[in-house]
Amino acid sequence: MRSIDFLMRQRLVVGLVCLGILIASYAAVVVTEYDVVKGFRSIPKAVIWSSENFYPDEKSLKRLPKIIAKMQETLVTAVTATTCAAFVGFLVAILGANATRPHWVFSIVSRAIASLFRNVDVSAWSLILLFSFGQSMFTGYLALFFVTFGFMVRMLMETIDLSSADTIEALRATGASPSAVITQSVIPTCMPQFVSWTLFMIETNIRSATLVGILTGTGIGNLFDIYYKSLNYHAASLVIVVIVIAVLLIESVSNAIRRVVLQ
Amino acid sequence: MPVLHVENVRKTYGGSSFALDGVSFSIEKGEFVAIIGPSGAGKSTLLRCINRLIAVTSGTVSVNGTDVTKVSNSGLRVLRRTVGMIFQHYNLVNRLTVIENVLHGRLGYKSSLSGTFGLFSHAEKMRAYELLQAVGLSEQIYQRCGQLSGGQKQRVGIARALIQDPTLMLCDEPIASLDPNAAKIVMDTLRDINQRLGITVVANLHQVHAAREYAHRIIGVNAGKVVFDGPPSLLTLEIIQQIYGSEAQDLMLADGELHA
Question: ipTM value of the model?
Protein backbone atom coordinates (compact mmCIF):
# COMPACT_ATOMS: atom_id res chain seq x y z
CA MET A 1 0.00 0.00 0.00
CA ARG A 2 2.81 2.38 0.85
CA SER A 3 4.25 2.18 -2.63
CA ILE A 4 0.87 3.08 -4.16
CA ASP A 5 0.64 6.07 -1.84
CA PHE A 6 4.11 7.05 -2.91
CA LEU A 7 3.22 6.88 -6.61
CA MET A 8 0.01 8.87 -6.02
CA ARG A 9 2.01 11.52 -4.23
CA GLN A 10 4.44 11.75 -7.16
CA ARG A 11 1.52 12.21 -9.60
CA LEU A 12 0.03 14.84 -7.32
CA VAL A 13 3.31 16.80 -7.23
CA VAL A 14 3.61 16.74 -11.05
CA GLY A 15 -0.04 17.79 -11.38
CA LEU A 16 0.40 20.68 -8.96
CA VAL A 17 3.52 21.91 -10.75
CA CYS A 18 1.68 21.88 -14.11
CA LEU A 19 -1.26 23.72 -12.56
CA GLY A 20 1.13 26.30 -11.08
CA ILE A 21 2.72 26.94 -14.49
CA LEU A 22 -0.72 27.40 -16.10
CA ILE A 23 -1.81 29.84 -13.40
CA ALA A 24 1.46 31.80 -13.73
CA SER A 25 1.01 32.02 -17.53
CA TYR A 26 -2.58 33.21 -17.17
CA ALA A 27 -1.58 35.80 -14.57
CA ALA A 28 1.17 37.06 -16.90
CA VAL A 29 -1.34 37.39 -19.78
CA VAL A 30 -3.72 39.36 -17.58
CA VAL A 31 -1.05 41.64 -16.12
CA THR A 32 0.55 42.50 -19.48
CA GLU A 33 -2.85 42.71 -21.23
CA TYR A 34 -1.53 40.39 -23.93
CA ASP A 35 -4.19 39.28 -26.42
CA VAL A 36 -3.30 35.66 -27.20
CA VAL A 37 -5.65 35.34 -30.18
CA LYS A 38 -4.46 38.57 -31.75
CA GLY A 39 -0.85 37.53 -31.16
CA PHE A 40 -1.22 34.31 -33.10
CA ARG A 41 -3.38 35.92 -35.79
CA SER A 42 -0.64 38.43 -36.59
CA ILE A 43 1.88 35.68 -37.41
CA PRO A 44 0.61 35.20 -41.02
CA LYS A 45 0.67 38.98 -41.48
CA ALA A 46 4.30 39.08 -40.33
CA VAL A 47 5.22 36.29 -42.73
CA ILE A 48 3.54 38.11 -45.63
CA TRP A 49 5.28 41.37 -44.77
CA SER A 50 8.67 39.64 -44.52
CA SER A 51 8.30 37.88 -47.85
CA GLU A 52 7.33 41.18 -49.52
CA ASN A 53 10.04 43.38 -48.00
CA PHE A 54 12.63 41.42 -46.05
CA TYR A 55 14.77 39.80 -48.72
CA PRO A 56 18.05 40.86 -50.32
CA ASP A 57 17.51 42.47 -53.72
CA GLU A 58 20.01 43.27 -56.48
CA LYS A 59 20.71 46.77 -55.22
CA SER A 60 21.53 45.55 -51.74
CA LEU A 61 24.05 43.04 -53.12
CA LYS A 62 26.29 45.99 -53.99
CA ARG A 63 26.70 46.50 -50.26
CA LEU A 64 27.93 42.94 -49.79
CA PRO A 65 31.69 43.77 -49.61
CA LYS A 66 31.03 46.31 -46.87
CA ILE A 67 28.80 43.88 -44.99
CA ILE A 68 31.41 41.12 -45.21
CA ALA A 69 34.12 43.49 -43.97
CA LYS A 70 31.99 44.37 -40.93
CA MET A 71 31.18 40.70 -40.36
CA GLN A 72 34.90 39.93 -40.31
CA GLU A 73 35.43 42.69 -37.78
CA THR A 74 32.75 41.22 -35.52
CA LEU A 75 34.03 37.66 -35.94
CA VAL A 76 37.56 38.68 -35.04
CA THR A 77 36.34 40.59 -31.99
CA ALA A 78 34.32 37.62 -30.78
CA VAL A 79 37.11 35.09 -31.33
CA THR A 80 39.79 37.30 -29.75
CA ALA A 81 37.66 38.18 -26.73
CA THR A 82 36.75 34.53 -26.20
CA THR A 83 40.23 33.05 -26.53
CA CYS A 84 41.84 35.70 -24.32
CA ALA A 85 39.11 35.31 -21.69
CA ALA A 86 39.41 31.51 -21.84
CA PHE A 87 43.16 31.69 -21.24
CA VAL A 88 42.92 34.13 -18.32
CA GLY A 89 39.93 32.16 -17.02
CA PHE A 90 41.98 28.94 -16.96
CA LEU A 91 44.68 30.61 -14.84
CA VAL A 92 42.12 31.97 -12.37
CA ALA A 93 40.33 28.60 -12.30
CA ILE A 94 43.61 26.84 -11.38
CA LEU A 95 44.07 29.30 -8.49
CA GLY A 96 40.47 28.77 -7.37
CA ALA A 97 39.84 25.03 -7.80
CA ASN A 98 39.82 23.02 -4.57
CA ALA A 99 42.37 20.57 -5.95
CA THR A 100 44.98 23.14 -7.03
CA ARG A 101 44.45 26.31 -4.97
CA PRO A 102 47.45 27.64 -3.03
CA HIS A 103 45.14 28.74 -0.18
CA TRP A 104 41.39 28.56 0.42
CA VAL A 105 41.07 32.36 0.21
CA PHE A 106 41.79 32.08 -3.54
CA SER A 107 38.74 29.85 -3.95
CA ILE A 108 36.39 32.39 -2.44
CA VAL A 109 37.87 35.26 -4.47
CA SER A 110 37.75 33.26 -7.74
CA ARG A 111 34.17 32.18 -7.13
CA ALA A 112 33.10 35.75 -6.33
CA ILE A 113 34.81 37.14 -9.46
CA ALA A 114 33.27 34.41 -11.61
CA SER A 115 29.76 35.08 -10.29
CA LEU A 116 30.04 38.83 -10.74
CA PHE A 117 31.26 38.61 -14.33
CA ARG A 118 28.95 35.80 -15.38
CA ASN A 119 25.69 36.96 -13.82
CA VAL A 120 25.73 40.45 -15.31
CA ASP A 121 24.39 40.00 -18.85
CA VAL A 122 26.54 40.83 -21.86
CA SER A 123 24.17 43.64 -22.91
CA ALA A 124 24.33 45.13 -19.42
CA TRP A 125 28.15 45.01 -19.54
CA SER A 126 28.08 46.75 -22.93
CA LEU A 127 25.97 49.62 -21.57
CA ILE A 128 28.04 49.91 -18.39
CA LEU A 129 31.32 49.91 -20.34
CA LEU A 130 29.93 52.34 -22.89
CA PHE A 131 30.27 55.11 -20.30
CA SER A 132 33.98 54.51 -19.79
CA PHE A 133 35.16 53.43 -23.24
CA GLY A 134 32.67 55.05 -25.62
CA GLN A 135 31.52 53.67 -28.93
CA SER A 136 34.42 51.47 -29.96
CA MET A 137 35.32 47.87 -30.73
CA PHE A 138 37.13 47.78 -27.42
CA THR A 139 33.88 48.22 -25.47
CA GLY A 140 32.35 45.22 -27.21
CA TYR A 141 35.55 43.26 -26.77
CA LEU A 142 35.57 43.93 -23.02
CA ALA A 143 31.87 43.08 -22.60
CA LEU A 144 32.36 39.72 -24.32
CA PHE A 145 35.61 39.17 -22.43
CA PHE A 146 33.98 39.70 -19.03
CA VAL A 147 31.06 37.34 -19.58
CA THR A 148 33.25 34.63 -21.13
CA PHE A 149 35.82 35.00 -18.38
CA GLY A 150 33.17 34.50 -15.67
CA PHE A 151 31.75 31.47 -17.46
CA MET A 152 35.14 29.85 -18.09
CA VAL A 153 36.35 30.31 -14.50
CA ARG A 154 33.22 28.63 -13.20
CA MET A 155 33.23 25.74 -15.67
CA LEU A 156 36.97 25.06 -15.47
CA MET A 157 37.04 25.11 -11.67
CA GLU A 158 34.46 22.33 -11.74
CA THR A 159 36.30 20.47 -14.49
CA ILE A 160 39.59 20.57 -12.57
CA ASP A 161 37.98 19.31 -9.36
CA LEU A 162 36.01 16.59 -11.09
CA SER A 163 38.52 15.21 -13.55
CA SER A 164 42.02 15.77 -12.21
CA ALA A 165 41.74 15.18 -8.46
CA ASP A 166 43.02 11.58 -8.81
CA THR A 167 46.08 12.36 -10.91
CA ILE A 168 46.90 15.42 -8.80
CA GLU A 169 47.03 13.12 -5.78
CA ALA A 170 49.29 10.67 -7.62
CA LEU A 171 51.75 13.34 -8.77
CA ARG A 172 51.85 14.95 -5.32
CA ALA A 173 52.72 11.53 -3.95
CA THR A 174 55.78 11.34 -6.25
CA GLY A 175 57.09 14.59 -4.77
CA ALA A 176 56.34 16.72 -7.85
CA SER A 177 56.36 20.49 -7.36
CA PRO A 178 52.99 22.30 -7.49
CA SER A 179 53.74 23.85 -10.90
CA ALA A 180 54.78 20.46 -12.31
CA VAL A 181 51.52 18.95 -11.05
CA ILE A 182 49.61 21.61 -12.98
CA THR A 183 51.49 21.28 -16.28
CA GLN A 184 51.85 17.49 -16.20
CA SER A 185 48.43 16.54 -14.87
CA VAL A 186 45.84 19.32 -14.69
CA ILE A 187 46.46 20.82 -18.12
CA PRO A 188 46.54 17.55 -20.13
CA THR A 189 43.49 16.22 -18.28
CA CYS A 190 41.41 19.35 -18.69
CA MET A 191 42.51 20.22 -22.23
CA PRO A 192 39.58 18.57 -24.07
CA GLN A 193 37.05 20.27 -21.81
CA PHE A 194 38.91 23.55 -22.13
CA VAL A 195 38.87 23.39 -25.93
CA SER A 196 35.25 22.31 -25.95
CA TRP A 197 34.06 25.14 -23.70
CA THR A 198 36.14 27.67 -25.61
CA LEU A 199 34.58 26.61 -28.92
CA PHE A 200 31.14 26.72 -27.34
CA MET A 201 31.77 30.26 -26.12
CA ILE A 202 33.10 31.35 -29.53
CA GLU A 203 29.83 30.19 -31.10
CA THR A 204 27.76 31.91 -28.41
CA ASN A 205 29.81 35.08 -28.58
CA ILE A 206 29.48 35.48 -32.33
CA ARG A 207 25.73 35.72 -31.79
CA SER A 208 26.17 38.01 -28.77
CA ALA A 209 28.66 40.16 -30.67
CA THR A 210 25.91 41.16 -33.11
CA LEU A 211 23.74 42.39 -30.27
CA VAL A 212 26.70 44.05 -28.56
CA GLY A 213 27.46 45.78 -31.88
CA ILE A 214 23.97 47.31 -31.95
CA LEU A 215 24.51 48.67 -28.43
CA THR A 216 28.09 49.89 -28.88
CA GLY A 217 27.70 51.10 -32.48
CA THR A 218 30.31 48.82 -34.02
CA GLY A 219 30.61 45.88 -36.37
CA ILE A 220 27.86 44.03 -38.14
CA GLY A 221 25.29 44.81 -35.45
CA ASN A 222 25.65 48.53 -36.03
CA LEU A 223 25.37 48.06 -39.79
CA PHE A 224 22.12 46.14 -39.34
CA ASP A 225 20.84 48.85 -37.02
CA ILE A 226 21.62 51.57 -39.59
CA TYR A 227 19.95 49.76 -42.50
CA TYR A 228 16.95 48.78 -40.41
CA LYS A 229 16.34 52.25 -39.02
CA SER A 230 16.74 53.84 -42.45
CA LEU A 231 14.02 51.43 -43.68
CA ASN A 232 16.47 49.72 -46.05
CA TYR A 233 15.01 46.28 -45.37
CA HIS A 234 16.66 44.59 -48.32
CA ALA A 235 20.14 45.45 -47.07
CA ALA A 236 19.14 44.58 -43.50
CA SER A 237 17.97 41.14 -44.62
CA LEU A 238 21.26 40.61 -46.47
CA VAL A 239 23.06 41.31 -43.16
CA ILE A 240 20.95 38.56 -41.51
CA VAL A 241 21.81 36.11 -44.31
CA VAL A 242 25.52 36.86 -43.92
CA ILE A 243 25.31 36.37 -40.13
CA VAL A 244 23.53 33.04 -40.52
CA ILE A 245 26.12 31.81 -43.03
CA ALA A 246 28.97 32.96 -40.76
CA VAL A 247 27.46 31.22 -37.72
CA LEU A 248 26.93 27.98 -39.65
CA LEU A 249 30.50 28.12 -40.97
CA ILE A 250 31.97 28.66 -37.53
CA GLU A 251 29.86 25.86 -36.09
CA SER A 252 31.01 23.38 -38.70
CA VAL A 253 34.64 24.38 -38.16
CA SER A 254 34.32 24.05 -34.39
CA ASN A 255 32.61 20.68 -34.75
CA ALA A 256 35.50 19.49 -36.90
CA ILE A 257 38.00 20.68 -34.27
CA ARG A 258 35.97 18.98 -31.54
CA ARG A 259 36.02 15.67 -33.37
CA VAL A 260 39.80 15.77 -33.60
CA VAL A 261 40.46 16.96 -30.04
CA LEU A 262 37.87 14.99 -28.10
CA GLN A 263 38.56 11.53 -29.42
CA MET B 1 66.02 1.61 12.06
CA PRO B 2 62.56 0.66 10.80
CA VAL B 3 61.52 1.83 7.31
CA LEU B 4 58.23 3.01 8.73
CA HIS B 5 57.31 3.84 12.28
CA VAL B 6 53.80 4.96 13.17
CA GLU B 7 53.14 6.02 16.72
CA ASN B 8 49.81 6.85 18.33
CA VAL B 9 48.43 8.45 15.19
CA ARG B 10 45.02 10.04 15.41
CA LYS B 11 43.07 11.66 12.63
CA THR B 12 39.78 13.47 12.89
CA TYR B 13 37.94 15.28 10.10
CA GLY B 14 36.39 17.78 12.50
CA GLY B 15 33.62 16.48 14.71
CA SER B 16 34.16 14.07 17.56
CA SER B 17 34.71 10.75 15.72
CA PHE B 18 38.20 9.57 14.83
CA ALA B 19 39.07 8.13 11.41
CA LEU B 20 42.27 6.89 13.07
CA ASP B 21 42.26 6.44 16.81
CA GLY B 22 45.73 5.85 18.25
CA VAL B 23 47.37 3.67 15.61
CA SER B 24 50.91 2.40 16.29
CA PHE B 25 53.14 -0.07 14.45
CA SER B 26 56.61 -0.40 13.05
CA ILE B 27 57.67 -1.95 9.75
CA GLU B 28 61.19 -3.23 9.01
CA LYS B 29 62.97 -3.18 5.67
CA GLY B 30 61.85 -5.89 3.25
CA GLU B 31 58.53 -6.69 4.88
CA PHE B 32 55.35 -7.24 2.87
CA VAL B 33 52.54 -5.96 5.07
CA ALA B 34 48.83 -6.12 4.28
CA ILE B 35 46.40 -3.83 6.05
CA ILE B 36 42.93 -5.35 6.12
CA GLY B 37 39.63 -4.13 7.49
CA PRO B 38 36.04 -3.30 6.52
CA SER B 39 35.12 -0.33 4.32
CA GLY B 40 35.46 2.91 6.23
CA ALA B 41 37.81 1.43 8.84
CA GLY B 42 40.44 4.08 8.06
CA LYS B 43 42.79 2.03 5.84
CA SER B 44 43.03 4.66 3.09
CA THR B 45 43.44 7.46 5.61
CA LEU B 46 46.22 5.54 7.35
CA LEU B 47 48.10 4.96 4.08
CA ARG B 48 47.79 8.63 3.10
CA CYS B 49 49.07 9.77 6.50
CA ILE B 50 52.34 7.96 5.72
CA ASN B 51 53.29 10.33 2.86
CA ARG B 52 51.24 13.22 4.25
CA LEU B 53 48.69 13.34 1.45
CA ILE B 54 46.56 13.67 4.59
CA ALA B 55 47.97 15.46 7.65
CA VAL B 56 47.62 13.65 10.97
CA THR B 57 45.77 15.32 13.84
CA SER B 58 48.24 14.01 16.43
CA GLY B 59 50.97 11.39 16.76
CA THR B 60 54.10 10.81 14.69
CA VAL B 61 54.89 9.02 11.45
CA SER B 62 58.49 8.52 10.47
CA VAL B 63 59.77 7.15 7.18
CA ASN B 64 63.44 6.10 7.12
CA GLY B 65 63.97 8.11 10.31
CA THR B 66 62.41 11.36 9.03
CA ASP B 67 59.39 12.67 10.91
CA VAL B 68 56.78 13.12 8.18
CA THR B 69 54.53 15.27 10.34
CA LYS B 70 57.18 17.92 11.00
CA VAL B 71 59.14 18.03 7.75
CA SER B 72 59.19 21.29 5.69
CA ASN B 73 57.55 21.55 2.27
CA SER B 74 60.80 20.98 0.37
CA GLY B 75 61.75 18.22 2.79
CA LEU B 76 58.38 16.60 2.11
CA ARG B 77 59.12 16.50 -1.63
CA VAL B 78 62.45 14.77 -0.93
CA LEU B 79 60.72 12.31 1.37
CA ARG B 80 57.85 11.58 -1.00
CA ARG B 81 60.14 10.72 -3.89
CA THR B 82 61.45 7.71 -1.98
CA VAL B 83 57.90 6.49 -1.28
CA GLY B 84 56.11 4.99 -4.27
CA MET B 85 52.33 4.82 -4.31
CA ILE B 86 49.76 2.97 -6.40
CA PHE B 87 46.02 3.48 -6.27
CA GLN B 88 42.74 1.59 -6.66
CA HIS B 89 41.75 3.75 -9.62
CA TYR B 90 45.34 3.84 -10.98
CA ASN B 91 45.33 7.70 -11.02
CA LEU B 92 47.08 7.94 -14.38
CA VAL B 93 46.73 10.85 -16.79
CA ASN B 94 44.59 9.01 -19.34
CA ARG B 95 45.26 11.43 -22.17
CA LEU B 96 49.02 11.01 -21.98
CA THR B 97 51.00 8.04 -23.28
CA VAL B 98 52.18 5.16 -21.13
CA ILE B 99 55.81 6.31 -21.10
CA GLU B 100 54.86 9.89 -20.19
CA ASN B 101 52.92 8.57 -17.21
CA VAL B 102 55.88 6.46 -16.11
CA LEU B 103 58.21 9.46 -16.38
CA HIS B 104 55.92 11.36 -14.00
CA GLY B 105 57.54 9.24 -11.29
CA ARG B 106 60.76 11.25 -11.80
CA LEU B 107 59.11 14.63 -11.09
CA GLY B 108 60.12 14.47 -7.44
CA TYR B 109 63.79 14.56 -8.49
CA LYS B 110 63.37 17.57 -10.80
CA SER B 111 63.70 21.27 -10.17
CA SER B 112 60.38 23.11 -10.39
CA LEU B 113 61.38 24.46 -13.80
CA SER B 114 62.37 21.24 -15.56
CA GLY B 115 59.46 19.46 -13.90
CA THR B 116 57.02 22.07 -15.13
CA PHE B 117 58.25 21.74 -18.70
CA GLY B 118 58.53 17.96 -18.44
CA LEU B 119 62.21 17.80 -19.40
CA PHE B 120 63.50 14.26 -18.88
CA SER B 121 66.99 12.98 -19.58
CA HIS B 122 67.84 10.18 -22.00
CA ALA B 123 68.80 7.94 -19.07
CA GLU B 124 65.41 8.48 -17.45
CA LYS B 125 63.61 7.60 -20.67
CA MET B 126 65.70 4.43 -21.05
CA ARG B 127 64.92 3.50 -17.46
CA ALA B 128 61.19 4.03 -18.09
CA TYR B 129 61.44 1.76 -21.14
CA GLU B 130 63.22 -0.96 -19.16
CA LEU B 131 60.62 -0.81 -16.40
CA LEU B 132 57.80 -1.08 -18.91
CA GLN B 133 59.52 -4.11 -20.40
CA ALA B 134 59.80 -5.60 -16.92
CA VAL B 135 56.05 -5.24 -16.27
CA GLY B 136 55.27 -6.61 -19.74
CA LEU B 137 54.08 -3.43 -21.45
CA SER B 138 56.86 -2.84 -24.00
CA GLU B 139 54.28 -3.02 -26.83
CA GLN B 140 52.10 -0.26 -25.35
CA ILE B 141 54.72 2.45 -24.69
CA TYR B 142 53.20 5.04 -27.03
CA GLN B 143 49.57 4.17 -26.41
CA ARG B 144 47.40 6.54 -24.44
CA CYS B 145 46.72 5.21 -20.95
CA GLY B 146 42.99 5.64 -21.46
CA GLN B 147 43.09 2.81 -24.00
CA LEU B 148 44.61 0.24 -21.62
CA SER B 149 42.77 -2.40 -19.60
CA GLY B 150 42.57 -2.09 -15.81
CA GLY B 151 45.36 -4.59 -15.21
CA GLN B 152 47.64 -2.84 -17.70
CA LYS B 153 46.90 0.54 -16.10
CA GLN B 154 47.87 -0.79 -12.68
CA ARG B 155 51.16 -2.08 -14.11
CA VAL B 156 51.84 1.41 -15.52
CA GLY B 157 51.13 2.68 -12.00
CA ILE B 158 53.70 0.22 -10.63
CA ALA B 159 56.30 1.31 -13.20
CA ARG B 160 55.63 4.95 -12.28
CA ALA B 161 56.26 4.11 -8.62
CA LEU B 162 59.39 2.02 -9.37
CA ILE B 163 61.11 4.74 -11.42
CA GLN B 164 61.13 6.76 -8.17
CA ASP B 165 63.63 4.22 -6.77
CA PRO B 166 61.46 3.88 -3.68
CA THR B 167 62.44 2.26 -0.40
CA LEU B 168 58.78 1.94 0.53
CA MET B 169 55.81 1.17 -1.66
CA LEU B 170 52.27 2.12 -0.57
CA CYS B 171 49.42 0.31 -2.33
CA ASP B 172 45.89 1.58 -1.80
CA GLU B 173 43.48 -1.24 -2.73
CA PRO B 174 45.64 -2.16 -5.75
CA ILE B 175 43.39 -4.99 -6.97
CA ALA B 176 39.93 -3.88 -5.81
CA SER B 177 38.89 -2.86 -9.35
CA LEU B 178 40.50 -5.78 -11.19
CA ASP B 179 39.31 -9.18 -12.36
CA PRO B 180 40.95 -12.21 -10.66
CA ASN B 181 43.41 -12.78 -13.50
CA ALA B 182 44.68 -9.20 -13.66
CA ALA B 183 44.69 -9.08 -9.86
CA LYS B 184 47.01 -12.09 -9.72
CA ILE B 185 49.45 -10.50 -12.20
CA VAL B 186 49.52 -7.28 -10.17
CA MET B 187 49.98 -9.07 -6.83
CA ASP B 188 52.71 -11.31 -8.31
CA THR B 189 54.47 -8.19 -9.58
CA LEU B 190 54.29 -6.65 -6.12
CA ARG B 191 55.70 -9.83 -4.55
CA ASP B 192 58.49 -9.81 -7.11
CA ILE B 193 59.33 -6.18 -6.30
CA ASN B 194 59.39 -7.04 -2.62
CA GLN B 195 61.56 -10.16 -2.93
CA ARG B 196 63.92 -9.24 -5.75
CA LEU B 197 64.40 -5.50 -5.12
CA GLY B 198 63.95 -5.61 -1.35
CA ILE B 199 61.40 -2.80 -1.45
CA THR B 200 59.13 -2.73 1.58
CA VAL B 201 55.48 -3.07 0.54
CA VAL B 202 52.48 -1.85 2.55
CA ALA B 203 49.18 -2.70 0.87
CA ASN B 204 45.59 -1.98 1.84
CA LEU B 205 43.61 -5.03 0.82
CA HIS B 206 39.96 -5.77 1.09
CA GLN B 207 40.44 -9.40 0.11
CA VAL B 208 41.51 -11.55 3.04
CA HIS B 209 42.66 -14.39 0.81
CA ALA B 210 45.06 -12.12 -1.11
CA ALA B 211 46.44 -10.78 2.16
CA ARG B 212 47.01 -14.35 3.43
CA GLU B 213 48.63 -15.45 0.23
CA TYR B 214 51.06 -12.57 -0.34
CA ALA B 215 51.77 -10.80 2.95
CA HIS B 216 54.36 -11.74 5.62
CA ARG B 217 52.39 -9.81 8.15
CA ILE B 218 48.81 -8.65 8.43
CA ILE B 219 47.52 -5.61 10.30
CA GLY B 220 43.77 -5.65 10.96
CA VAL B 221 42.07 -2.29 11.36
CA ASN B 222 38.56 -1.63 12.61
CA ALA B 223 37.03 1.76 13.45
CA GLY B 224 40.42 3.47 13.30
CA LYS B 225 42.12 1.05 15.72
CA VAL B 226 44.62 -1.76 15.15
CA VAL B 227 42.84 -4.92 16.32
CA PHE B 228 45.29 -7.49 14.94
CA ASP B 229 48.99 -7.42 14.06
CA GLY B 230 50.74 -10.65 13.22
CA PRO B 231 51.65 -13.30 10.62
CA PRO B 232 48.89 -14.77 8.39
CA SER B 233 49.10 -18.08 10.27
CA LEU B 234 47.63 -16.44 13.38
CA LEU B 235 44.70 -14.93 11.49
CA THR B 236 41.92 -17.22 12.68
CA LEU B 237 38.26 -17.15 11.77
CA GLU B 238 37.36 -15.49 15.07
CA ILE B 239 39.89 -12.74 14.48
CA ILE B 240 38.57 -12.13 10.97
CA GLN B 241 35.11 -11.79 12.48
CA GLN B 242 36.51 -9.36 15.03
CA ILE B 243 38.14 -7.26 12.30
CA TYR B 244 35.26 -7.23 9.87
CA GLY B 245 32.29 -7.24 12.27
CA SER B 246 29.03 -7.44 10.38
CA GLU B 247 30.83 -7.54 7.01
CA ALA B 248 32.48 -10.86 7.93
CA GLN B 249 29.57 -12.97 6.76
CA ASP B 250 29.82 -11.63 3.20
CA LEU B 251 33.55 -12.23 3.18
CA MET B 252 33.10 -15.85 4.28
CA LEU B 253 30.80 -16.44 1.35
CA ALA B 254 33.34 -14.89 -1.01
CA ASP B 255 36.29 -16.74 0.53
CA GLY B 256 35.12 -20.33 0.56
CA GLU B 257 38.61 -21.55 1.43
CA LEU B 258 38.37 -20.09 4.92
CA HIS B 259 35.79 -22.66 5.97
CA ALA B 260 38.20 -25.48 5.29
Answer: 0.90
